[in-house]
Structures are given as C-alpha cells and as structure tokens.
Write a structure and sequence with these properties.
Largest sheet: 5 strands, mixed, barrel
Strand order of the largest sheet: 1-3-4-6-5
CATH architecture: Beta Barrel
Number of domains: 1
Helix content: under 10%
CATH superfamily: Nucleic acid-binding proteins
Number of strands: 8
Number of helices: 1
Shape: globular
Low-confidence stretches: 110-121, 132-144
Strand content: over 45%
Order of helices and strands: EEEEHEEEE
Radius of gyration: 17 Å
Mean pLDDT: 81
Amino acid sequence: MLNKMLVIGNVGRDPEMRYTPSGSAVTSFSLAVNRRYTPQNGEPQEETEWFDVTAWNRLAETCNNYVTRGMKVYVEGRLRSRSWVGQDGQTRFRNEIVANTVTFLNRPQGGGGYGGPPGEPGGYGADGEYGGPAEPSDADDLPW
C-alpha cells in the first residue's frame, strides 16, 4: 500500500508550533497550490487548493524557524484524514499532510537565509537535518 503526497505551493500563514503533553514539537501551516488550465471555452482559469501541513519533532522546529508566509515550498508526506464532532454537534472533517520532508524553493534575497547554502534552495527531512540543494537545482525553471 502507498499513501504519499507531493505538493509544491506557497505558504498561506506563518507556522504555529506547539508541544504535546509528552513534549513532542508539532508545527502546522497552510499551503496554497495553484492549478492553471484552459477549458473548452478557451479562457485560462486558475484554481487554488489549500492543504494543512503538519510537521513533528525536529522537522517541526525547523519549519517553525524558517518557513514564512508566502514562501514557496515542496512538501512530501502522507495524507491523514480525521473527523470529530464540533461543539455545535456537527461532524467535521479534516485532511492534512503529515510532512516527512519540507524543501525551501525560494531563493533568499542577499544570500543565506533559510539555513542552506547562500542562494540555494534547501531541504529538511523528518530528522530536521539539512539535505542539501533541492533537485532540480534551478527551481526558477519549474513550470509552476
């Protein structure tokens, strides 16, 4: 079986970090992913899909320190669906991506910035360790 999500988008809000009662760090942020298409009428259209992203432990701390609103990131992880009953008695649903990897695709202005080499996008794995430049190395050439 396979449960894997791969998304590239812009961070919609600054990360929020909290700790579980057992002391594990958890950070969440929203991610906007745009899709451009041209329907039969010929008018280009764009739609935005929003994802909630959750990172745990060292990756949570890294995201909290370096991810900011508007930043372009690549997130790799698994889809998790949850449901609960709200205070109004209505059942609520939430889909979220539990991140294993977050790769920063923006090029920092003035070099340095997100913890990677100056001028290079950087990727952090679930262990919070820097994984070197993202592939492909020239993120500006990506079609989105």
